[in-house]
From TrEMBL, chains A, B, C, D:
<dbReference type="InterPro" id="IPR015424">
    <property type="entry name" value="PyrdxlP-dep_Trfase"/>
</dbReference>
<dbReference type="InterPro" id="IPR015422">
    <property type="entry name" value="PyrdxlP-dep_Trfase_small"/>
</dbReference>
<dbReference type="InterPro" id="IPR001597">
    <property type="entry name" value="ArAA_b-elim_lyase/Thr_aldolase"/>
</dbReference>
<dbReference type="InterPro" id="IPR015421">
    <property type="entry name" value="PyrdxlP-dep_Trfase_major"/>
</dbReference>
<dbReference type="Pfam" id="PF01212">
    <property type="entry name" value="Beta_elim_lyase"/>
</dbReference>
<dbReference type="GO" id="GO:0006520">
    <property type="term" value="P:amino acid metabolic process"/>
</dbReference>
<feature type="domain" description="Aromatic amino acid beta-eliminating lyase/threonine aldolase">
    <location>
        <begin position="11"/>
        <end position="297"/>
    </location>
</feature>
<comment type="similarity">
    <text>Belongs to the threonine aldolase family.</text>
</comment>
<keyword id="KW-0663">Pyridoxal phosphate</keyword>
<dbReference type="GO" id="GO:0016829">
    <property type="term" value="F:lyase activity"/>
</dbReference>
<protein>
    <recommendedName>
        <fullName>Aromatic amino acid beta-eliminating lyase/threonine aldolase domain-containing protein</fullName>
    </recommendedName>
</protein>
Amino acid sequence: MNGLPGSPRLDFASDNHAEAHPAVLAALAAAAPGPAPAYGGDRWTAAAEAGLRDLAGPAAVPLLVFNGTAANVLGLSVLLGPGDAIICAEQSHFAVDECGAVEAMLGRKLLTAPAPDGKLTPAAVEAVLERCADVRTPRPSTVALTQATELGTCYTLRELADLRELCDRRGLRVYLDGARLANAVARLGCTVADIARFADALSLGFTKNGALGADALLLMAPGIAVRAPYLRRQQGQLASKMRFLAAQVGALLDGGLWLDNARHANTMADRLAAQLAPLPGLRLAQRVESNAVFVELPRAATDFLRPRWAFHLLPTGPARLMTSHATARADVDGLAEEVRRSLR
Amino acid sequence: MNGLPGSPRLDFASDNHAEAHPAVLAALAAAAPGPAPAYGGDRWTAAAEAGLRDLAGPAAVPLLVFNGTAANVLGLSVLLGPGDAIICAEQSHFAVDECGAVEAMLGRKLLTAPAPDGKLTPAAVEAVLERCADVRTPRPSTVALTQATELGTCYTLRELADLRELCDRRGLRVYLDGARLANAVARLGCTVADIARFADALSLGFTKNGALGADALLLMAPGIAVRAPYLRRQQGQLASKMRFLAAQVGALLDGGLWLDNARHANTMADRLAAQLAPLPGLRLAQRVESNAVFVELPRAATDFLRPRWAFHLLPTGPARLMTSHATARADVDGLAEEVRRSLR
Amino acid sequence: MNGLPGSPRLDFASDNHAEAHPAVLAALAAAAPGPAPAYGGDRWTAAAEAGLRDLAGPAAVPLLVFNGTAANVLGLSVLLGPGDAIICAEQSHFAVDECGAVEAMLGRKLLTAPAPDGKLTPAAVEAVLERCADVRTPRPSTVALTQATELGTCYTLRELADLRELCDRRGLRVYLDGARLANAVARLGCTVADIARFADALSLGFTKNGALGADALLLMAPGIAVRAPYLRRQQGQLASKMRFLAAQVGALLDGGLWLDNARHANTMADRLAAQLAPLPGLRLAQRVESNAVFVELPRAATDFLRPRWAFHLLPTGPARLMTSHATARADVDGLAEEVRRSLR
Amino acid sequence: MNGLPGSPRLDFASDNHAEAHPAVLAALAAAAPGPAPAYGGDRWTAAAEAGLRDLAGPAAVPLLVFNGTAANVLGLSVLLGPGDAIICAEQSHFAVDECGAVEAMLGRKLLTAPAPDGKLTPAAVEAVLERCADVRTPRPSTVALTQATELGTCYTLRELADLRELCDRRGLRVYLDGARLANAVARLGCTVADIARFADALSLGFTKNGALGADALLLMAPGIAVRAPYLRRQQGQLASKMRFLAAQVGALLDGGLWLDNARHANTMADRLAAQLAPLPGLRLAQRVESNAVFVELPRAATDFLRPRWAFHLLPTGPARLMTSHATARADVDGLAEEVRRSLR
């Protein structure tokens, strides 16, 4: 069930290719029978929201949505004042992968900063502020971070604190795209709350981490929650049968399955990186700090691997190898073996 | 599992309160294991799209989305030229229930027409055109119909043909909101294609008809499909793990389950109406042509029923009683009995 | 120079048809020679803004724009939070005359209330709030008034105070469309500040009152001005050669010309109404409280007048006769005479 | 009247700082007396539109607007299909100077290409198409050129033909920002039509070329004009007293004043460049092909000049010296002399 027969193996192409976790399916089956209030008035939603508050802090206001783009758009729409612009890393998912959703749905300009390792720095933010200092550019009011980043790296808590300090000083809000926040939490050995406290709003992704399709937005700043339920519906993200989003989230929160899943994915990435790093003629392009391995391969190696394994090649060169909750140790070892062969 | 203990019974409050069909859950479980291409490159999506073309015609281009608001916004965004406006019935779901999604996401003005039975007429459309004849009003370019309507009625094929003829003559496109199209097909004894051929784009709802959450947009007019995949992603409606939308749709298409479900819901509405209609002091407010019974009740009857059953009261007075694929004959008879008691 | 030869006389068709005041042209000629800073850094802009603060109060923040639609859109964009909706009278200019500018440029839904005399009442506002009480409708956050109204009437200061009190109580902001505010000020014998204090933002129109084309937005609520200059540019309303908007406003502010012009227009409307009111077979449809006379005429009279005079007929029946700063007494008497003839 | 006393001289800071041409003021005074139809039904508008068709070709559809941002937004809104994106040079005015107007008012993403001399090339356009080849990026459908460019250079007719050929081949439309088209026409010794035939829509600026504030949009592609009048009103760009935009345009078209003005500005730029080019320690950063001279100066020279003359410094270093219809020969020689002093 791995793509078409004879097609490349999908295992490391994307964590979006991964299967749904059996516990999630079981929870859906359990939630299905009988009528339940629509639009979030059900007990599964109440439980999932409570679980999310347990993670992020009692003042967090959680909203379930269908996917990560939706969480980003909803989160930014809550934070941005009229006409404001967003400062983000040039690789941000919503800057390059979401088909202009922020521009189209929110009418906002993205002010991008270079981020060679995927991470914004205070200096990079300051540089954007400096070049956007009059009405020729829309007013930057929100800095958007991604944790873990698009390049598989993680901001340390110290780095997040420094960025937050800058933002407070310059009157900027912080949005954090946490499509892979679980992997960052697993890597840093911290809690969701440890990261969430630096953000005014953040997403927490479940889709890539074992769900069929469900992500959460968490509103942290006081007073910003009043409009969010309206915006969610306006943006087409209010599930009528919300219990079926909530049951997925509930299953993953239950017993910390979300964290186990993320830890496993990270461990598989580490295992892969450990086997690849020593190989001559190959270079890890980024530090491995979540569930992604970016590796620069000789052209011949790439040509050898492409018909066998599906993976992305960045425009800048490196191959991206993603692991997930469902990645098997044997698959990692199998891929590493084929990379070794490709280099001969 | 019917709301909180002691709370009103939900059975007739909304078809969105209904359970998911077991066949849908089984299909999800079957689709879950192993990796699969993301974003619709999987075989479940291919199968669901083929099934939808079987229903609507070989030239139809289907796109799966998360819910009905999304299908409406996506469908309208494909049809509308720059700055164009929409003509619709005053009760249209996107005019009164979707929190201004069309205005917010598409920047469009809705030009509403009165529709006492939920159905637009050629005369009503002409009247809007007449009052919107210069640049003070945005140019109406698309007529949006709902089938079955918000008031539980159905356009006949003759009525649809007449509206289409008017629209062709006046250079207008036709969008059809088919959140409950299945119920209309079941009622009219026609096919989806019989209705779809009058529309340039239409939605086909599964969420209210047994799914957990999945709706389809069907593009019928030649040449309009090129932008739709971009718009779907831009609007936050591209499921990364699309197989889990597709498996739901596949399960409902399989063996005509979608039509069986709709037939059952309609039959239950008929059964309810048949028991209520003869009662003195009560009046059916609309013809029962799908899975909704609108009934005018004396105030005392309403007061008696409200603590026992959840149902909507229209601003204009009537109570709305919805049936679904999961409505049991005994529940219908039970409700009818309580209505009889309420009238004593 | 009154339309094409043989075409109907334009004098009472619209105050937008009126000539520019000679003092405005003189001011433009005086401002023209030599270089001056662009985008509002010039001394004419400084003077016009100072003059506007003299009218509206020292805390008012004025912004010049090209026309009334622009002032409305800019003013509302400053006041509305994400996704919020607007409560307004059904005849509001931006609801029926501005081609969906608010929907298109701001993505907002207008929640209209009936207003038989053009004026919103607290009860009408409350009724909208009641029918918009959950996420199915976008959150109303701003009430938009028009002073003088589209039907030529004026809110009294007492009525404005009552509406403001309601809005404060319900957490609503107030926008006031003052395209003809001068006429209201002249009628009420009050100051601009007397009205402006009830609004969070308001426009003050000069185009209909002697300018070539220039209107002002006045921001009254503390703290809302920071984004306005950005929004003005974003919305295409920042004049590069701002001195030529400012010189127009300056000329009209100078010596109270704006108020003299409005008084004259009002007086001409009164003179017209006084001659028409006693005529049998004719009825004033609205009280004459600014520079508009709405009059119900027999069909035969309308048919007699239409080839001779340009005027609007409301969909609801009455003819609209507008006066302006340039209306001559003899023209009023001439029109009145022809109306008398039309009724014979 | 050159800024504040003691402040730097404005003469070369921007063509937006230039005075209005006396012929324009005379035309306004002539158009002012008496009533005239609003919203473009007047004879000045008819004459200006006829004059614009004389320039651009009989099939051109002209629309007057208030400024260049408005013309860009309106022109792009006419050309772009739902969700489409725009390919443009990184320095495009609407990409960096218009406060995100395209994003905010049209919800569009700008796909920028490097253009060291301000000019897009077919190769640069192809490179954008290549990196935007799936739904992760909105569909590019329109290439936007600027003529003369932001860097004072001009596309040759050959270069425009090559870009048009590419766009035809790839199904792309062409928008041309002609805020300084007059200067390009003067430089190339061609006609407006010679350039306009390569565009589907283009703007023709008058504000920087002697008007108080008036620009034109010219629609060239057949069939695109139907929505433009609606969009103009929707975007707040329909002047109620249109005669006062039209009279400005008419005065500049009359006897080719627009071209004389542009020729003069170009000649002054040439004269300035001729004096600066031979100076040691100074480098012209761009070819001088319109009314701008970009020159790299030593830091000491810049420091010497800044308190005496207002001019822009690009982020990349060079100073921008703009000439206009009102630039005097003596001012050019005076500035050149001071630059010489600054280099000593």
